Amino acid sequence: MLRLAVPTDAETYERMQDPLAERGIEAEYVQTAERSIPIAEGREVFADDSGTNGGFDVGFVFPPRLAEGGIADALLDVPWVNGREEVLRSRHKGETLAHLSAAGLPVPETVVISNLVEEPTLRDAFGRFDPPVVVKPNSTTRGVGVAKAHDLDTFLGICDYLDLVHDYRATGDQSFLVQEFLADASDYRVMLVDGEVVGAVERRLPEDALAAGQWKHNVHRGATATPVGLDDELRTLAERTAETLDIPWLGVDLLVTDDRAVVNETNARPTIDAATKYRKGFWDDVAALVRSQV
What we know:
Elements (H helix, E strand, L loop, with lengths): L1 E5 L4 H11 L3 E5 L28 E3 L5 H11 L3 E2 L2 H8 L1 H10 L7 E5 L4 H9 L5 E5 L9 E3 L2 H15 L8 E6 L5 E8 L2 E9 L2 H5 L12 E4 L4 H14 L3 E8 L4 E7 L14 H11 L2
Parallel strand pairs: 1-2, 1-3, 3-4
Antiparallel strand pairs: 5-8, 6-7, 6-8, 9-10, 9-12, 10-11, 12-13
Helix pairs in contact: 5-6
């Protein structure tokens, strides 16, 4: 049986174990963070409680903490479904949008601010947009730290707080994005395996949350994800995104208004949802992707 190292024990790991086992792939959790890692023990440091050694065949997505992930990569010595480079191309939102824009794919109007900058630079960035604008960190997920500014004073105030955060010398990423706000856009998460769409959901907040002023359609913020079919245009846009980024396991977030569709973000570590949200044969597709790395 093929042994698959999975450096997370969250929903994705729980949902993949039985379906992959039925297809001859044993998914096993490998703890790469929040522990001690004796380097000299080599791959044995990743032995499980049963004493099984770290002799894995494939890894499922490079570990979320890059520093510890590099250690696991060196000691396990396995190919990854989404290696370090693939994860980085999706992790930093500005880089992702730059790759897509250079390939001619539609993205939101965006200005990346590499802090620290002077106020005239911020004023100029804000002046490129019709307010409100969206301000978001360059490398967070689940809508964490994303804010909306309706006027210049509010925007500059948000930037002041970012200056305070970035003033800590240990802060690695001192950049953030300023983007146009697409009012009334439908929010879709499209799942792709090896460049092919295998499912899509529309994420939408409840009406009472919208009435209260909420606008982030993240599931972790209370939105509901409902399976949907995509028209050919949106399907092609998602598949071209995966091809451009060259990431085989990918979630693509699309914002769609009455007159345009844009790629808002991508996720090279997308959570596996309930099987009902994917096409028939989804787990066969996942198993084939894992085997293709060997």
